[in-house]
Specification:
This protein is 43% helix and 25% strand. It contains nine helices and twelve strands. Strands 3, 4, 5, 6, 7, 10, 11 and 12 form an eight-stranded mixed beta sheet that branches. Strands 1-2 form a two-stranded antiparallel ribbon. The two termini are 56 Å apart.
C-alpha cells in the first residue's frame, strides 16, 4: 500500500522530490519503493525526463486500477475506524428478566452520567439463556443470579437478596413473620416459569423432591401477581422484585434461600471502553456502599 501511495503521489506532484515531501519520506525511500513496485508489475511505470516525470504506457494502464485499490483500502480503514469507535461506545447488556429495576437503574444512571457517549442496548431473558448468549458474544456484559457459573466467565457480585413468599392480604401467611418452605405444600402454587428458584433449591438440597401443588404457570410477572391478588394461590419471588399494591411478602426459612446478583463477563475477552466504564462504575458503587 505504501508503494501505491507513493506511485499516486508522484503522478499527482509530477516529481519524485515533491512526492517525497508530500508523503513526508526521503526521496531514496520513494525511489526504492517504486523500483520494487515496477519489479513486481514487470516494467517501468514512469518515463523519467529532466523537467518532469511522466507515466509510461504500463503506468497509464495501471493508474485507474491502482487508484481504485487505494481508494477502496482508504474507505475500508475509515469504515473500520467508525465501527471500532461505535463498538467502543456500545454496551450490549443482558439482564435476567426476574431482576428488580431500582438498583440496576441506579447503576445504569451512574454509568451514563460518567460516560455520556455510551450507547446502551438492554435485552432481557431467562438467566441461563442470558449467560449462554454472553458466552456466544451476543452481549458484552450480563447481570444474572445463578448458583453455579461456568469456568469461562468472571463475576462481580452486586447484591444478595432473599427469596420470599408472595400472597394477598388476609391470607394465613400474613400472621407469620417467616414462612417455612414446607408450608407451601399445602397451598395452591403459582409457578413463575422464568424463575431460577429451582436451581437454587437443587443446589441446596440436591435431588430431594419438593412437591408443590402447581395450579398455574406463566412467564409473565404481571399475570402471576394478578392471580395472587385474585386469590388463585401464592408464589415465590426474589425480595427486590416490585409487587403490586395488595400483595404481601414474607421471607422463606428452613432453609432461607438467597440469590447473589452479579455482573458477568467472559474471561480473556477484551473489554470495549463502554464495558470497562460500566464495571468501573459498578465497583465504585459497591465500595461506596460498604
Amino acid at each position: 500500500m505504501h508503494q501505491i501511495q507513493y506511485f499516486l503521489a508522484i503522478v499527482r506532484e509530477g516529481s519524485f522530490n515533491r512526492a517525497a515531501l508530500a508523503c513526508d519520506v526521503s526521496q531514496p525511500s520513494i525511489t526504492r519503493a517504486i523500483r520494487k513496485l515496477e519489479e513486481e508489475l514487470g516494467g517501468p511505470l514512469f518515463d523519467r525526463n529532466r523537467n518532469r516525470v511522466e507515466l509510461s504506457e504500463l503506468g497509464r494502464r495501471l493508474l485507474p486500477r491502482l487508484e481504485r485499490i487505494y481508494s477502496e483500502v482508504d474507505e475500508t480503514l475509515k469504515d473500520a475506524a467508525i465501527l471500532n469507535t461505535s463498538r467502543g461506545r456500545r454496551l450490549r447488556l443482558g439482564l435476567m428478566c426476574t431482576l428488580g429495576p431500582k438498583r440496576l437503574l441506579e447503576l445504569v444512571e451512574a454509568t451514563t452520567r460518567s460516560n455520556a457517549k455510551i450507547e446502551l442496548s438492554i435485552c432481557e431473558g431467562k438467566a441461563r439463556k442470558i449467560l449462554d448468549d454472553l458466552i456466544a458474544d451476543k452481549f458484552d456484559v450480563a447481570i444474572v443470579a445463578l448458583p453455579i457459573l461456568p469456568e469461562e466467565v468472571a463475576s462481580l457480585p452486586l447484591h444478595d437478596e432473599r427469596y420470599v413468599v408472595a400472597f394477598r392480604a388476609g391470607h394465613r401467611f400474613e400472621s407469620m413473620d417467616e414462612i417455612p418452605l414446607d408450608e407451601l405444600t399445602a397451598e395452591s402454587y403459582l409457578e413463575r416459569i422464568n424463575c431460577e428458584f429451582d436451581e437454587y433449591y437443587a443446589a441446596h438440597f440436591g435431588d430431594r423432591p419438593f412437591d408443590l401443588n402447581i395450579r398455574y404457570s406463566s412467564e409473565r410477572e404481571d399475570w402471576i401477581q394478578a392471580m395472587i391478588l385474585a386469590g388463585f394461590g401464592v408464589a415465590i419471588l426474589p425480595e427486590l422484585l416490585p409487587v403490586a399494591p395488595g400483595i404481601l411478602t414474607r421471607p422463606i426459612i428452613q432453609p432461607a434461600l438467597t440469590r447473589q446478583v452479579s455482573i458477568i463477563t467472559v474471561r480473556g475477552r477484551p473489554h470495549a471502553p463502554a464495558v470497562t466504564s460500566f464495571i468501573r462504575t459498578a465497583t465504585a458503587s459497591l465500595k461506596a456502599k460498604k
